Queue: 4 jobs
Job 1
Amino acid sequence: MNNKDERAHDLRMYFTGFIAAVILTALSFLTAILQPFGSVGIFASLAVLAAVQIAVHFRFFLHIDVSRQKREELQLILFTGLIILIMVAGTVWVLGNLMTRMM
């Protein structure tokens, strides 16, 4: 591929990712406004839409996929996410425990 073809391919990828992100954001807002699924269904559908949005951003904007060349970057991002999840869950657990002890 020459430079012009690569540029056109990248622009197509960015445009596709932008359209997908806008659609997912609109679906999230519509789900929150219209509340079609009940309270538990809203949170579940918003979590699914958020996970899909993360995947769209990884694929189209950060160019991270499951190919061999990008696998190390994906593992680094997933490990970072795991550490953040452990920190947040631990904080919520400790604060919840302190709240129950104070009541």
Job 2
Amino acid sequence: MNTEQSQSPASELVISTHGAVRILSMNRPQTKNGLTLELLSALVEALQAAKSDESIRAVMLTGRGEAFSSGLDFKAAMHLVQSGDSDFVEQTERRMRNYFHAAVRALIALPKPVIAFLDGVAAGFGCDLALACDLRIGTRRARIGEIFIKRGLMPDGGGTYTLPRLVGLGRAFDLMLTGDIVEAEEAQRIGLLSRIVEGEAEALAFAERIAAGPPLVMAEIKQAVYAGLGQSLDAALENEVRGQLKLLRSQDFMEGVSAFFMKRPPQFTGQ
């Protein structure tokens, strides 16, 4: 297994590569991976790099230490609140759009599967980051919560969009209006976690399994699923026709058929 590791200039994001899996590890364990503008900028940059790197077929987002992410680093941001700056709300809007929302959009737009691995709490915007990933897996230490209401705020990282689609309207309102944190077993039961794993090694093995799939197919599935969330059944069916016709012309389709008849594992190339 080939492993490479690098860090962002501020060392707030550790980037490593295991075969075809790019691992992005938020690296502020002393704050339970509290989010800063620098960390979010590094995340967006790393996702853009993964998009353009043809050797990368899946991304795993995780956090170092005892948390996935506790959300916004309030201590780092409190000087804005306490300053009494009349431009505080306008500054906050700019930061939301240019940093926090940019990260959410980058996760969803990446034409490769993104897996959130939770070995601790994902709360507030940390929860929203996990929800913006295509899959969420976690250990029994994983906990997830939209705790915004406890700070006098509402979810602002796409949680009002992703959470109802994952757990249903009633359950989503329950979680957003109470701010309750859900433990791993309950998170799996209601659909927030797709599976519970024993640790990082098992999580990486799952990510490698996903990464072994045909890249063109995974990209088309992801595009069709997200487009279909806001479309009619007819539009969703048309997306499937368009995508399938494209895939029928691919070398990976022929490889899949050949592998089936030859009774061997397929070797997909993304062509």
Job 3
Amino acid sequence: MNAGPALVSILRQGSCLIASIHTALDDSQMVRFQQDLIAQIGQHRSRGVIIDVAALDVLDSFGSKTLRNIAEMARLRGATAVIVGTQPDVAFAMAELGMGTGSVPTALDFEEGLAYLARAEDGRSAASPEPSTGRNWG
């Protein structure tokens, strides 16, 4: 039996995951996508996540909230998430309805999303303390 085309895909490229949503998802599919993506962040020790929504011509309030939750969960697991590819009509409708992405960064397309993650990683590296050489507290 043919299961049909994939609704989403999650691919690994280096320390990043690229998650593409290929069609509108119902609430249960969106929750499954969230669970799968967060699990893969831990499995691959990902530092960045690009969520590509270019194929979506509509994004409801649950979907918008779930994307914000994914970004927060990714942050709590040590990864930076960026949403890319929001269609102009979707962006307009989200703004009109007050359904923004909150503090989740967005980028025009995949290339800009990669550039954002590279800058975030550079900033994280610059802010990291030098490795500890250990101290004798005795």
Job 4
Amino acid sequence: MDLVDFLRARLAKDEQVARACSGAAWAAASGGTVRLDGGDGPGDEPGFVASAENASYAEHIARHDPSRVLQDAAARRQLVDDCEKHAWIIAQGRATPEQQAAQAVREQALRLLALPYAHHPDYQVEWRA
């Protein structure tokens, strides 16, 4: 598996999980809980999502709700697609020296995008930025 395939697979998994629990936005509530920011609970009360040790943890969880994960994955996928497009151009032998230099930066960006997944068994240490 190359780096691009690895990133595409991780992004697809992130999106799959986020879609499975998407709906209303999440909001930190009192007492370290995270609730759906809408009427998705019984009697149109905000539905329960998670309980955290403290308000800071709850705020962190709420800030990383499924809609944010989906937006993040879409942005990362656009970066991966752009890097692949330019790599294809260079492989065709029609690249200027400037384009080749820019591709080195793109390849570094791909390695950086993979770092959050370094714990995954398919991650290869040579990708480490």
